[in-house]
Amino acid sequence: MTKWVYTFGDGTAEGTADMRDLLGGKGANLAEMCNLGLPVPPGLTITTEACNWYLGNARAYPDELAEQVNTALAHIGKVAGRDFADAKRPLLLSVRSGARASMPGMMDTVLNLGLNDESVLALAEGVGDERFAYDSYRRFIQMYSDVVMGLDHEVFEEILEDEKARFGHELDTELTADEWKQVIARYKSVIEEELGQAFPQDPQQQLWGAIGAVFSSWTNARAVTYRQLHDIPSGWGTAVNVQAMVFGNLGDGSATGVAFTRNPSTGENTLYGEFLVNAQGEDVVAGIRTPQNITEAARIEAGSDKPSLEKLMPDAFSEFLGICNRLENHYKDMQDLEFTIENGKLWMLQTRAGKRTARAGLRIAVDLAEAGMITKQEAIGRIDPASLDQLLHPTIDPSVSRDVIGSGLPASPGAATGEIVFTPDEAVEKSEAGKKVILVRVETSPEDIHGMHAAQGIVTSRGGMTSHAAVVARGMGKPCVSGAGNIRVDIRRKLLLTESGPLKEGEIITVDGSSGQVLRGSVPMLHPELSGDFGRLMEWADGSRRMKVRTNAETPADANVARKFGAEGIGLCRTEHMFFEDDRIVAMREMILAGDEEGRRTALAQLLPMQRADFVELFEIMKGLPVTIRLLDPPLHEFLPKTDEEIAEVAEAMKVEEELLRQRLEALHEFNPMLGHRGCRLAVSYPEIAEMQARAIFEAAVEAGAKTGEHVVPEIMIPLVGMMTELEYVKKHIEKVANDIMEEAGQKIDYLIGTMIELPRAAIRADVIAEAAEFFSFGTNDLTQTTFGISRDDASSFLSTYQKKGIIERDPFISLDIAGVGQLIRMAAEKGRAGRPDIKLGICGEHGGDPTSIHFCEELALDYVSCSPFRVPIARLAAAQAALKGEDA
Ligand code: PEP
Ligand code: MG
């Protein structure tokens, strides 16, 4: 018989922390906390397998489930001293989702389940507070009707507003028990009117409704989007946690809160958290009331006049502090905790590895390793390489004066500038149109995720450090200021109201998520500091790494940035990018449009000194490191004039008739330029181009070598080779130039000639091609394009549909298609080594900076990966993780 249900409570549990695939993160950790003897309200977890069964069987439950749930409920009842079916001593339940990976706020929750017209009386009597009991009942009706019965919560909000006005109250807390009863009566009748059925009174019916709703919420639109953004497979499913309710809203001796064992923004080793007196869990995250600090130190730092938990409930606080330390030591990682204090008694509701900024992640990993709690290798494995991106982006130059228009909490660090938008849809629209935007909201909710994703930064006028906006922005690595109380958002008139006047939609602001300030206009930014924890972890990573990390760069600026980020050479210098500058494009056009070889050679002679100077500079910057220079690759007409004005200008410069020029342009037109006259095919047609480039490279090598005293060994790379004969033909011309220059310079030049593998035929014939190539660099952009037969320039229009429809998991132009393109690479690597055992192998397509693809490169034992400068640190870390994983295996 399948076991679908696992119980926990009273110091024991059927599950453990390592059962998260089956029990979800929340369920596994609740079990673990019980096993550690911590105070956890008793409960049961229904497995993720049950969810998948339910979703795969037309929303029916597996046969044995009901019986297993009932047995578990009886166990919970025994521990709690109450009975679910007993209206006189009711056991009230919370029903919550809990997937393998945390998906905050994406799925559904029902609290106070089990309340009905009868048990509400018992609750009132039991806690001695009738008002509390009816408030709980109406909350339950509202939540249940929304989550399970699908009735929009606004219906209830309208009734509540209406009743408050009728009774002359402003706040919910002013309603008396009798007034709540009247609200409840209206709630019930609106449910009957709208849905044609009564609100269920039977606790069993309530429970199964809630379980089904939580399972189904796995497939709601919010959850689906979240999974897509975070690469969470749809097949995981969610577990359901059913737990005895504890109440943080039983009066001033009760409270509820969330805490991190270390600061999730900076990583500092101090307990960090917020709580609300007399409140239920959702109130803290909802950001409606501004929470209080847990520790006295944090309260003083925040300048808050509301008492800390440490002062207000010292006993519960010190027990909590002990539990925090225990959990952190147990899990050997920073924990994110939820707790409730019911009449002075502390209950733990959740623990999990806390989400943190990249900066905090680094600091925590380094601190834990230095404290000996984890090894350096574990520290390396703790950091998501992609998260380093957050650290590599600009912050506001501290020396400039700031025009501060609002301030709030520094909810997620970094800085960004953009146009003000007020709705998530506008954020998406404008960003798709190429604009940078800042999303400004009163507060955010899970419905806003797409807009937050599209925005550069987020500002909210309400909410704390654990509000939705803060948590999600930190996860996304976007700067966020939350709870900026001195601004107002007038969404109707699309105005941001500040003390220094209103700002309209489209006006530019800057968010500084590190200081919590919102500034008018754009401000100068500084590049990040790469020392400290970052430097330490990178040093450890470099010590564990086998593959080299190079960069794709052709400008001195990029090459310098890449070196600062630790690049160990250039893996791809796309020389065509060097021909677009004003003075060069004219000579380039003259070369292309020349009618014969002589004309081309004359134009090329003008380009030679410019190319040479470029290469000298690159060799100097990369002193002592390898530099791979690729010969001209794109189809020639990419360089040609397009507008009438440009054509007239070029005709004039070349002193030819415009008409003649147009004829030549027409002749160069190609139907399918990506598969046309490009790559080595250009060098076969016009070897003089390759000769000029080779001359520039060799002369630069001699010159830079003399200048720096460091011998330069250029690596010349021939693109888009499909046949060994193409490579041999071009190679011969390059070798001739090399010999000429060695003679001219009277010195020997060491160099390598290799090719890109970016056509399936090249992969298939790699053993033969390797005879002529000293190195291969996998051009996975073109190789993906040519293997799939999908144009890399047109793919985005339909690949996103493929992803939405589940036809592909990830865009193969971003993350290598290991099953297909990867197999060609594997074959080419093997054949290449068979043809030339010491062949040097690397990758220089976009995938060279993608962590998953880098793991694959390590598996194939490539010598290096090459990626854009800002991805170099990511690649260094990913390469280290890949090497360590290889060691484990
Ligand atoms: C490639 O095709 O992967 C490559 C690196 O070259 P490019 O992107 O310039 O075509
Ligand atoms: Mg290419």
From TrEMBL:
EC number: 2.7.9.1
Sequence ranges assigned to domain PEP-utilising enzyme C-terminal in this UniProt record: 531-882
GO MF terms held by the record: ATP binding; kinase activity; metal ion binding; pyruvate, phosphate dikinase activity
Pfam family, one: PEP-utilizers
Residues the entry annotates as binding Mg(2+): 758, 782
Cofactor: Mg(2+)
Catalysed reaction, written as an equation: pyruvate + phosphate + ATP = phosphoenolpyruvate + AMP + diphosphate + H(+)
Domain PEP-utilising enzyme mobile: start-end pairs: 435-516
Catalytic residues, chain numbering: 468 (tele-phosphohistidine intermediate), 844 (proton donor)
Domain of life of the organism encoding this protein: Bacteria
UniProt keyword terms in alphabetical order: ATP-binding, Kinase, Magnesium, Metal-binding, Nucleotide-binding, Pyruvate, Transferase
Pyruvate phosphate dikinase AMP/ATP-binding domain residues: 21-55, 61-295, 311-360
Annotated binding of substrate, by residue: 574, 630, 758, 779-782
Cited function: Catalyzes the reversible phosphorylation of pyruvate and phosphate.
Name used for this protein in its record: Pyruvate, phosphate dikinase
Taxonomy of the source species: Bacteria, Pseudomonadati, Pseudomonadota, Alphaproteobacteria, Hyphomicrobiales
